[in-house]
């Protein structure tokens, strides 16, 4: 087994590094890594239905989709992530206990009564301190998990508090479990825990590794297409009041692309708003793209005293 300690705190690069090590090695790999403030959504989830978009934007929290299934989680520097990349031997997939056992043993070495519980969690005092997920890629298996040492729960609650009235989706929804920080039971420095749990021969990333991580981060994990556009089909509803009146919108989205739009409200219009509705079909459900398209129209003829920026705010959050 080789041991990798990520030099990054950027979630795009850490998930890129994880995929790179999963696909470019044939040995067992153990990796430890930390992210700055970020929401990491499951592979099969609808991103917008998992996050509080306004809070995310105001607090500069990154959003990125991972390779594994399961629910959305919040990362910050008070959270330590661990990953195992191994050959997909029979029985490994869905065997969460096998990969959490060394983490639980390390926690017990501090006198903590940690245990495996639920479907894929590590519990301490009956509360979740670690969530785990898995994915298979070719003949390789990825298992990764979180460890909440002293995560900012106020940011966690703010970031993972979506408005259920805005998004209607059949995607897999996160289950909100009762969570706790390890520091509530014992003060443990993350660096000390790392020294206790790391195993295998230390592997230092090469220039080629850094180049591939940068490429994957740029072309995949840092893109709107992967993080938002890859969401299952959903319907979006929003309503706001402006000086020009109330504007309500219903949007159907598939693969991140607007299929249908319908406006309602008590606003005044000289021209038929169906022209705007038709123009928006085929555009990304992305605020900057929507605003750019609306900017091509004299919107005062369709929404009197409502600006293009305000209309874009109603149609798309991010």
Question: Would you spell out the secondary-structure blueprint of this structure?
Answer:
Elements: E1 2-5, H1 11-24, E2 29-33, E3 38-41, H2 53-58, E4 62-65, E5 73-75, E6 79-87, H3 96-108, E7 115-117, E8 121-124, E9 127-137, E10 140-148, H4 153-159, E11 167-169, H5 190-197, E12 201-202, H6 207-221, H7 224-229, E13 234-242, E14 245-254, E15 257-265, H8 274-280, H9 287-294, H10 308-315
Parallel strand pairs: 1-2, 1-12, 3-4
Antiparallel strand pairs: 2-6, 3-5, 6-10, 7-8, 8-9, 9-10, 11-13, 13-14, 14-15
Write the CATH architecture name of the largest domain: 2-Layer Sandwich
Give the averaged pLDDT, no decimals. 93
What radius of gyration results from the CA coordinates? 22 Å
SS element count, helices: 10
Give a short account of the largest sheet. Answer: 8 strands, mixed
* Domain count: 2
């Amino acid at each position: 087994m080789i041991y990798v300690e990520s030099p990054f705190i950027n979630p795009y690069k850490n998930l890129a590094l994880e995929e790179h090590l999963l696909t470019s090695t044939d040995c067992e790999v153990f990796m430890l890594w930390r992210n700055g403030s970020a929401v990491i959504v499951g592979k099969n989830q609808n991103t917008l239905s998992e996050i509080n978009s306004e809070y995310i934007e105001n607090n500069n929290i990154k959003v990125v989709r991972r390779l594994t299934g399961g629910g959305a989680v919040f990362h910050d520097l008070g959270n330590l992530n661990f990953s195992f990349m191994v050959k997909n031997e029979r029985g490994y997939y869905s065997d969460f206990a096998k990969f959490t056992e060394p983490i639980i043993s390390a926690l017990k070495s501090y006198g903590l009564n940690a245990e495996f519980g639920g479907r894929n969690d590590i519990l301490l005092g009956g509360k979740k301190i670690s969530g785990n997920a898995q994915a298979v890629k070719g003949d390789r298996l990825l298992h990764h998990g979180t460890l909440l040492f002293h995560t900012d729960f106020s940011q966690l609650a703010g970031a993972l508090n979506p408005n259920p009235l805005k998004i209607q989706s059949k995607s897999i929804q996160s289950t909100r479990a009762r969570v706790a920080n390890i520091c509530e039971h014992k003060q443990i420095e993350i660096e000390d825990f790392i020294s206790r749990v790391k195993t295998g021969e230390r592997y230092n990333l090469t220039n080629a590794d850094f180049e591939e991580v940068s490429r994957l981060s740029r072309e995949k994990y840092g893109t709107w297409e992967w993080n938002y556009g890859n969401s299952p089909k959903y319907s979006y509803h929003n309503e706001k009041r402006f000086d020009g009146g109330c504007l309500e919108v219903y949007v159907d989205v598939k693969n991140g692309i607007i299929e249908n739009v319908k406006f309602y409200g008590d606003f005044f219009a000289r021209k038929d708003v169906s022209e705007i509705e038709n123009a928006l079909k085929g555009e990304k459900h992305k605020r900057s793209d929507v605003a750019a398209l609306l900017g091509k129209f004299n919107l005062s003829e369709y929404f009197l005293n409502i600006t293009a920026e305000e209309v874009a705010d109603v149609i798309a959050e991010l």
